[in-house]
Amino acid sequence: MPLHHIIILAIVQGISEFLPVSSSGHLILTHTLLHPGTGTIDFWGTSLTIDIAVHVGTLLAVLIYFREDVLKIARGGIDILITRRMDTY
Length: 89
Description:
Blueprint (H helix, E strand, L loop, with lengths): L2 H14 L6 H12 L8 H23 L1 H17 L6
Helix pairs in contact: 1-2, 1-3
C-alpha cells in the first residue's frame, strides 16, 4: 500500500474516531475510494493490518494525552486491591 494511502487513512481515523459514528466504517469507505476497481479489497490482509495499526495509534495518542489520569486510575485500582477498601477523594 502506498505511503500516501496510509497517511490518508490515519487522517480519516484521527478525525472520525471521536465522532459518534463508526471510525471503522470510515476506514472501509476510504479503502474502497482509494482502491477503485472490482469493489473487493483484501480486507483480511493489508487493509485489516493498516486498520489495526491506525486504531493502535489512536489508543496510544489517547493514553499519552491522558497519561496522568490513567496513572491515577491504575494506582487507585492497585490501592483497592492491596487495602481492600475504597477511599473517597
